[in-house]
Amino acid sequence: MRVLLVEDDTGLASEIAAALRAENFAVDHADNGVDGLHLGDTELFDAAVLDLGLPGLGGIEVLRGWREAKRDLPVLILTARDGWSDKVQGFKAGADDYLVKPFRVEELVMRLRALVRRARGHADARLACGSLVFDAQVGTFERDGLPLKLTALEWRVLSCLMLRKEIVVPRADLIERVYEGDAEVDSNSVEVIIARLRRKIGHAMIETVRGLGYRLTAGEAAAG
C-alpha cells in the first residue's frame, strides 16, 4: 500500500512517515499544497493524509482539486482546528475521515487501514482467499492458520492483490502502489517479488495473466 502524506510540519511528517513505513506502507511526502495536488493528480496512491493548513495551497483546495479531477483515493484530513465548521467544510470537499491534532500515530495507522479496506469494498476486516487470511485492520497474514513472514515489499504486493482478490491487477499498478516515488525500480522487480510470494503461499494462488498482470485466486498448491 502506498500513502501520500501532505504535511508542512517537518517533525510531524517524519513521525507519521516512520510509523507508516514501520507498518510496511510506502510513503511519499509533500510539504506544500501545490506539490501535494500534483502528486495526487499524477500518481497512484491507496490513500492520502492531508493537512488543512498548508503553504502554497490550502488542504481544502487540494482536496477539491483531486475530487474535481475524479481522483477517488480515500483522504484522511489532519488539522489543528477542531471547530464544527472546519469538519463540515472538509467533508463537503470530499474527505473520508478526520483527525484533530494532537493525535496518536497508532490511531492514524488504524484509520488509514480501515479507509483503504472499505474503499476496496470490504466491510469485514478479515479477508480470506483459500488458505490465506489477511487481517486488514492489523496488517497480518496467515496461511493455514500460521503467521506468514513477509518483507515490506512482499507485504505491499500481497496486500494489494488480496484487496483485489480474483481481479487482475496490472503490473504497472503494482509498481506504483508498492514503491515510493524516488525508489529505483528494476525492470523485473515485480516478477522477483511474485516469485518469492509463490514460494511462501503456493504457486497456484498467484496467476499470471499474460499481457495484463497478476491475480490472486483460491487455487491451492503446497508452498515451498
From TrEMBL:
PROSITE patterns: OMPR_PHOB, RESPONSE_REGULATORY
DNA-binding region(s) from the entry: 124-218
Top-level lineage group: Bacteria
InterPro entries: CheY-like_superfamily, OmpR/PhoB-type_DNA-bd, Sig_transdc_resp-reg_C-effctor, Sig_transdc_resp-reg_receiver, WalR-like, WH-like_DNA-bd_sf
GO cellular component, one term: protein-DNA complex
Domain OmpR/PhoB-type: 124-218
Residues recorded as bearing 4-aspartylphosphate in the entry: 51
KW DNA-binding (keyword) present: yes
Gene3D superfamilies per UniProt: 3.40.50.2300, 6.10.250.690, Winged helix-like DNA-binding domain superfamily/Winged helix DNA-binding domain
Keywords, in A-Z order: DNA-binding, Phosphoprotein, Transcription, Transcription regulation, Two-component regulatory system
Segments forming domain Response regulatory: 2-116
GO molecular function: phosphorelay response regulator activity; transcription cis-regulatory region binding
GO biological process assignments: regulation of DNA-templated transcription
PANTHER family attached to this UniProt entry: REGULATOR OF RPOS (PTHR48111), RESPONSE REGULATOR PROTEIN CARR (PTHR48111:SF37)
Protein name per its UniProtKB record: DNA-binding response regulator
